């Protein structure tokens, strides 16, 4: 018997935006960001050799790259979670959830990460300063000091500009990752709920035969009369 195709269409009467999904996704994103960043910083500090300039440079580059990659991964996960919890079939609505998760997660996550990095850097600087002995200052060093300070300020400005540029690009990519995560989640949710099935055809039962009155037999109405 040839089966026929039955299409299951879900009920699309649902709220367009769900803040509960956004808050859940943002919480997951910030938590993942902090965990990934702490893992990266821990590995970097555990493998660094203070007396080796090459080791310091390598660890610094690796930590910087990981600091840019961690928010992208975390915000993608948060956007995906928000898109799934939104229970929407529209990819635009899912992407909108991911956008809000990316914006909220970037703001709160950046504040948390700056606080953590500042605390760790302050502790590391105090440890390094306690191990350094102050050299004797000579007359030649006093004369060269202003030039060195000017060069250090210029170098610090260049490094600060590069750091801010890197943070901006990383957060921009993170917001894009959140949008992508929300859209992908909505598409997968729609595929899971909107499907077609082949159901075998069951013929309807045959109607009972109609009762016939043999010729010459009076009807019930005639009998009652």
> Percent helix among the residues?
over 70%
CA-CA gap between termini? 53 Å
Largest sheet: 2 strands, antiparallel
The backbone outline, from C-alpha atoms, is: elongated
Calculate Rg over CA atoms: 35 Å
Instruction: List low-confidence stretches.
Output: 136-144, 221-225
Q: How many strands?
A: 2
Strand order of the largest sheet: 1-2
Task: Describe the protein in words.
With 225 residues, the chain is mainly alpha-helical. It has a domain at 20-130 and 167-199. 72% of the residues lie in helices and 4% in strands. The chain has a two-stranded antiparallel sheet with strand order 1-2. α2 packs antiparallel against α3 and α3 packs antiparallel against α4. The two termini are 53 Å apart. The model is unreliable at 136-144 and 221-225 (pLDDT under 50).
Summarize the helices and strands and which ones pair or pack.
Blueprint: E1 4-8, H1 19-47, H2 53-85, H3 91-131, H4 139-193, E2 195-199, H5 220-224
Antiparallel strand pairs: 1-2
What would you say about this model in short?
By secondary structure, this protein is mainly alpha-helical. Helices cover 72% and strands 4% of the residues. It has helices at 19-47, 53-85, 91-131, 139-193, 220-224; strands at residues 4-8, 195-199.
């Amino acid at each position: 018997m040839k089966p026929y195709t039955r299409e299951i269409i879900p009920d699309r009467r649902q709220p367009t935006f769900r803040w509960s999904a956004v808050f859940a996704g943002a919480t997951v994103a910030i938590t993942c960001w902090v965990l990934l960043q702490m893992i990266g910083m821990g590995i970097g500090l555990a493998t660094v050799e203070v007396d080796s300039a090459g080791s310091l440079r390598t660890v610094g580059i690796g930590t910087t790259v990981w600091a840019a990659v961690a928010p992208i991964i975390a915000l993608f996960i948060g956007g995906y979670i928000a898109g799934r919890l939104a229970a929407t079939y529209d990819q635009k609505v899912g992407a909108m959830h991911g956008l809000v998760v990316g914006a909220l997660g970037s703001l709160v996550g950046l504040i948390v990460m700056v606080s953590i990095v500042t605390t760790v850097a302050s502790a590391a600087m105090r440890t390094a300063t306690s191990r350094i002995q102050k050299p004797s200052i000579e007359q030649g060093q006093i004369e060269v000091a202003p030039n060195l300070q000017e060069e250090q300020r210029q170098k610090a400005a260049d490094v600060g500009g590069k750091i801010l540029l890197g943070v901006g690009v990383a957060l921009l990519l993170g917001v894009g990752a959140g949008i992508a995560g929300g859209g992908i989640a909505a598409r997968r949710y729609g595929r899971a709920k909107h499907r077609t099935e082949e159901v075998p055809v069951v013929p309807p039962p045959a109607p009972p035969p109609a009762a016939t009155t043999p010729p010459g037999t009076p009807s019930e109405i005639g009998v009652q009369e």
